[in-house]
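Page 42, continued from yesterday. The earlier attempt failed because a stray header line got pasted into the input along with the sequence. Redoing it now with the clean sequence only.
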Amino acid sequence: MHPTKSLYPPMHALRALDAFARLGTVWEAAEQLGITRSALSHRLAMLETVLGFEVAVRSGKGIALTPRGRRYALDVQKSLALLHDAHEEGAKPIEGNLRISSTPGFAAMWLCNHIASFQAEHPDLNLQIVANRELDETKDRDVDLFIVFGEGSWPKQHVQHLYDVEFLPMCSPALLNMNGGLNEPADLIRFPLLHLNNWDDWRHWLSMSGVALPRRGAGIRFSDLMMVQTAAIGGQGVMMGDGITCAVALAGGQLVAPFPMKVKSPAGYYLVRHGQKRPSPAVSAFARWLHALFKRVSSELKMGPL
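This time it went through. Structure tokens are written below.
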């Protein structure tokens, strides 16, 4: 048999396999599903056509799962359990409290521009967002989820990767024609360089462009990414930013990227929760929403210009 790749297994065929795998006989499985034995056999045959391999074979007077069919049935049982849980969560409104801690810059520049869509999906949820000055802080027991910036190492915590950060210079459009303009990377040295905490990413980007970072008078360091962006929008210098966190300012024309080259930061954004706590429906819902939103935004960035 050849697999029909354009088709997904029908749900009624998957339920037939699940019932047969759990109960062991065609007649018991058919009885539980409220169908005839021939109908159940037909559904298993349909599943084999779609999958391209045998899930059951004759064994004595009955039929039995093949080794591959048994493995597939286990995967189907897990998937059906997940669908059941998702239905249970979606069937009733999510209530209670959800407290999310985020780095200040990410919260102000990105999360606050999207969070209303999550609240609209869960209007009965009491949502609170707090900012933490420590970019990798995950210790507060009163917080349900942490959006943090780091290298991915939080022992004994549940960690979900959100996205890797790629930095590139950004500035106000007004700066493009000032001080002789920004025509090549070396021109950046004529402007104040703005960054968060240290110069590592600037040093890396300039080095890749064949330009040395001045030892003194390079610019201004800030303790908050929002301050870096505000200074850049105000024409106070050139910042080192990334296309997701600065997406709103870029889309609105407040910031432009004069050079396309990017450098990958060793750190990225992660969603972290306490490892010993079972996720509540609210926590699971927010994690799914954030993951889906990042996937969509990342795809949009890849399809279009920055």
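Notes: The first strand starts at residue 56 and ends at 59.
Reminder to self: strip header lines before submitting.
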